[in-house]
């Protein structure tokens, strides 16, 4: 049995069904978009079985892209949760057959409260479709299942249609990356767009020496500071140099190396600094990568030391 061929056949079968649906968009998508956009309430997704599972994912996608949405199981709705649907809400009902008993049971109650209904089903003559204000056709000619019975192509198309609806709404709202990040403050994009240098800045117990400090004493400070470097400042706390472990290793290779020399003799003078602690941490990471450094010194407008940003701090914070 060639499983690679089976996988290929499943993927191609489902892809072909999506292509067919894309070539035959006959439903009134503009009406569905307008209903949702102009609603003062939420978009509530409901469905049973596989349709319910797909509906849960669609609700999550919509909620994360600017459309207030949640999933409601129709059985729970019939036993008290119908009160979760407000008069300003819209319902998106999903049932491939359009006849799922649990879903059909709540339809008269939705109409009783004049709740607009968007339906996803395969048959425009189904009960779900007849109750709907907008019917979205999700019919497929062939399921990827070898028995042509298990929901495979149809659930893939339903999910893709939900994605398409979400994208249309994003376009209509001019939904931007910043908006997406605001719904994902703990995600990588949220960190990229919201975490600033100041949030990750090390300010306390920094290893600082003067330019006249002997190298052997600077090494002691370097070990105690645990950032792999020593910052050199003048008597006004202005940054004048940086001794890194790389500087130290290079100096050790010199024939005239002396541990009793002044730290400024082997340090990098006038190192790269940043005078904007409100810069996004992701932009600071780019500076670190561009200059091939591990430590970025942050100063004020007078070049006085404010703190340091280590590449390890950025990595641990999930900044990429």
TrEMBL record:
Please name the GO terms that the record assigns under molecular function: arabinose-5-phosphate isomerase activity; carbohydrate derivative binding
Q: Which family does it belong to?
A: Belongs to the SIS family. GutQ/KpsF subfamily.
Q: Could you tell me which InterPro entries the record lists for this protein?
A: CBS_dom (IPR000644), CBS_dom_sf (IPR046342), GutQ/KpsF_isomerases (IPR050986), KdsD/KpsF-type (IPR004800), SIS_dom (IPR001347), SIS_dom_sf (IPR046348), SIS_Kpsf (IPR035474)
Keyword Ribosomal protein carried by entry: no
Superkingdom of source:
Bacteria
Task: Please name the GO terms of the biological process aspect recorded for this protein, alphabetically.
Answer: carbohydrate derivative metabolic process; carbohydrate metabolic process
Which UniProt key words apply to this protein? CBS domain, Isomerase, Repeat
> What name goes with this protein?
D-arabinose 5-phosphate isomerase
Q: Does the keyword Isomerase apply?
A: yes
* Residues making up the signal peptide according to the UniProt record: none
Q: Which PANTHER family match?
A: ARABINOSE 5-PHOSPHATE ISOMERASE KDSD, PTHR42745
């Amino acid at each position: 049995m060639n499983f690679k061929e089976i996988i290929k056949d499943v993927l191609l079968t489902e892809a072909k069904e999506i292509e067919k649906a894309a070539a035959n968009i006959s439903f009134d998508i503009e009406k569905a978009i307008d209903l949702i956009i102009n609603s003062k309430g939420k978009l509530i997704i409901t469905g049973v079985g596989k349709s319910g599972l797909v509906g849960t994912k669609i609700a999550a996608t919509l909620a994360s892209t600017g459309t207030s949405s949640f999933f409601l199981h129709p059985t729970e709705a019939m036993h008290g949760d119908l009160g979760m649907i407000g008069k300003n809400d819209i319902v998106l009902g999903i049932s491939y057959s359009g006849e799922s008993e649990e879903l059909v049971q709540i339809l008269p109650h939705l109409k009783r409260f004049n709740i607009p209904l968007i339906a996803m089903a395969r048959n425009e003559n189904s009960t779900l479709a007849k109750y709907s204000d907008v019917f979205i056709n999700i019919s497929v000619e062939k399921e990827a299942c070898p028995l042509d019975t298990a929901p495979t192509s149809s659930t893939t198309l339903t999910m893709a249609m939900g994605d398409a609806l979400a994208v249309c709404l994003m376009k209509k709202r001019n939904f931007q990356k910043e908006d997406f990040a605001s719904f994902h403050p703990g995600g990588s994009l949220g960190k990229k767009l919201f975490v600033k240098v100041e949030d990750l800045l090390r300010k306390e117990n920094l290893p600082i020496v003067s330019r006249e400090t002997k190298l052997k004493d600077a090494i002691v400070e370097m070990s105690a500071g645990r950032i792999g470097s020593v910052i050199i400042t003048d008597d006004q706390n202005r940054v004048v140099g940086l001794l890194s472990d790389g500087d130290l290793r290079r100096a050790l290779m010199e024939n005239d190396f002396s541990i009793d020399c002044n730290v400024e003799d082997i340090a990098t003078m006038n190192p790269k600094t940043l005078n904007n602690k409100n810069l996004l941490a992701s932009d600071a990471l780019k500076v670190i990568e561009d200059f091939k450094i591990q430590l970025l010194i942050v100063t004020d407008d007078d070049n006085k030391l404010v703190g340091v940003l280590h590449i390890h701090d950025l990595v641990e914070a999930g900044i990429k």
